[in-house]
C-alpha cells in the first residue's frame, strides 16, 4: 500500500509556472482521476509526482520525501504509464513487458521465476498475451497502448500512475482498462489516472481532481466535482449529466460562450 502527499507543489517549465499550489493526500485503495482541459497541468503534475520533473513544495511517498527516495525504490513503488509513448526499438511484446521488471533486478542479474510470473500476469491482465511474439513497433495504436499498460502492470507496484490510458482504445478495451484499474485499486493499490472522458471518470473514479490553469480547483467524489457549472467554468462547455441507476453519463453538448 502507498500514500502520496502533495503539499504546495509547484512546477515551472522553461520559466513558465505550469503547476502551482497543489495540495492533496492520495490514499491507497482508490482510483483517483485527474481531469481538466488541455494544458491544465495534469501530465506535469503526474511527472512531478514521479520525480521526473523538478518541483517546489513537498511530495512525500509514505511519509518519505520523494527527493530522498532511492530511484530504484521509487520505481518499484510507483509504476508509470506515460502519455502516448512512441516506441523506437523493435522488441517483441514479451520483451517489452519484461522491461517492467527492471526496477526489481540487480545489475547484470537474470529474471527470476517470480519476475517471469509477474510478466505473465501482466500480459494476461492487459489482454495482450496473444500478442507476445509480435514486434511492438508493428502494433496498432490501441494494441501498443495495452502493451505499454502491461509493462506498467508488470512492475506490480503498490502505486500506478497512468496518463491517458484510454487514448487510442476502442470502447470495449476502454471498459476493460477501467475495470482493470478499478480491480487494482480494490486490491489495495493507489491508482492515479489522467482522463479526458468524463463519463469514464464519473463511473470509475472514487475521487476526481479537477485541474484548471495549473492547480486543483475541485476535489471530491465525481458527481460533486463534475457539475454543469464547473464544466462550464473550466472547460467552457455545456453538458448533460444523467444517472440511470448506478450508471452515470456525462455528455458534452456544446460550447458555452
Ligand atoms: N518543456 C516545456 N516548456 C514550457 N512549457 C511547457 C513545457 N512542457 C509543457 N509545457 C506547458 O505546460 C502546460 C501544462 O502541460 P501538461 O502537458 O501538463 O498539460 P495537460 O493538462 O496534461 O494537457 P493535455 O490534456 O493537453 O495532455 C501547457 O501549457 C504546456 O504547453
What would you note in describing this structure?
This protein has 257 residues and is of the alpha/beta class. It has a single domain (4-255), classed as Rossmann fold (3-Layer(aba) Sandwich), CATH 3.40.50.300. Helix content is 32%, strand content 30%. It has helices at residues 42-49, 71-77, 93-98, 113-125, 141-154, 171-186, 198-204, 222-225, 228-235; strands at residues 4-13, 16-26, 30-35, 56-61, 64-65, 78-81, 159-163, 190-194, 207-212, 215-220, 237-244, 247-255. The strands form 3 sheets. A 6-stranded mixed sheet has the order 6-7-8-3-9-10, with helices on both faces. Strands 2-1-4-5 form a 4-stranded antiparallel sheet, covered by helices on one side. The protein has a two-stranded antiparallel sheet with strand order 11-12. Strand 1 (4-13) and strand 2 form a beta hairpin. Helix 4 (113-125) packs antiparallel against helix 5 (141-154). The longest helix is centred in the C-terminal third of the chain and has 16 residues, at 171-186. The chain is globular, with a radius of gyration of 18 Å. Bound molecules: adenosine-5'-triphosphate. Residues 13-14, 16, 18, 36, 38-44 line the site of adenosine-5'-triphosphate (ATP). Adenosine-5'-triphosphate is lined by residues 13-14, 16, 18, 36, 38-44. Belongs to the ABC transporter superfamily. GO terms for molecular function: ATP binding; ATP hydrolysis activity. It comes from Sphingomonas panacis. Residues 4-238 form the ABC transporter domain. Part of the ABC transporter complex HmuTUV involved in hemin import. Responsible for energy coupling to the transport system.
Amino acid at each position: 500500500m502507498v500514500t502520496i502527499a502533495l503539499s504546495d507543489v509547484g512546477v515551472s517549465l522553461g520559466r513558465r509556472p505550469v503547476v502551482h499550489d497543489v495540495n492533496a493526500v492520495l490514499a491507497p485503495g482508490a482510483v483517483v482521476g485527474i481531469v481538466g482541459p488541455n494544458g491544465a497541468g495534469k501530465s506535469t503534475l503526474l511527472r512531478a509526482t514521479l520525480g521526473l520533473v523538478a518541483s517546489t513544495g513537498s511530495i512525500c511517498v509514505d511519509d518519505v520525501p520523494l527527493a530522498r527516495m532511492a530511484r530504484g525504490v521509487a520505481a518499484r513503488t510507483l509504476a508509470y504509464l506515460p502519455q502516448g509513448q512512441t516506441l523506437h526499438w523493435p522488441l517483441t511484446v514479451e520483451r517489452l513487458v519484461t522491461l517492467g521488471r527492471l526496477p526489481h533486478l540487480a545489475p547484470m542479474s537474470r529474471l527470476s521465476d517470480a519476475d517471469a510470473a509477474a510478466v505473465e500476469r501482466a500480459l494476461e491482465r492487459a489482454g495482450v498475451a496473444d500478442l507476445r511474439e509480435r514486434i511492438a513497433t508493428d502494433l496498432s495504436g490501441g494494441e501498443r497502448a495495452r502493451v505499454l499498460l502491461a509493462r506498467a502492470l508488470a512492475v506490480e507496484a503498490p502505486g500506478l500512475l497512468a496518463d491517458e490510458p484510454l487514448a487510442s482504445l476502442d470502447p470495449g478495451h476502454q471498459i476493460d482498462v477501467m475495470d482493470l484499474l478499478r480491480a487494482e485499486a480494490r486490491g489495495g493499490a493507489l491508482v492515479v489516472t489522467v482522463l479526458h472522458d468524463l463519463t469514464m471518470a464519473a463511473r470509475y473514479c472514487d475521487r476526481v481532481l479537477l485541474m484548471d490553469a495549473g492547480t486543483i480547483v475541485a476535489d471530491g467524489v465525481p458527481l460533486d466535482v463534475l457539475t454543469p457549472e464547473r464544466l462550464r467554468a473550466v472547460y467552457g462547455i455545456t453538458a448533460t449529466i444523467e444517472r440511470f441507476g448506478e450508471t452515470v453519463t456525462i455528455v458534452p453538448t456544446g460550447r458555452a460562450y
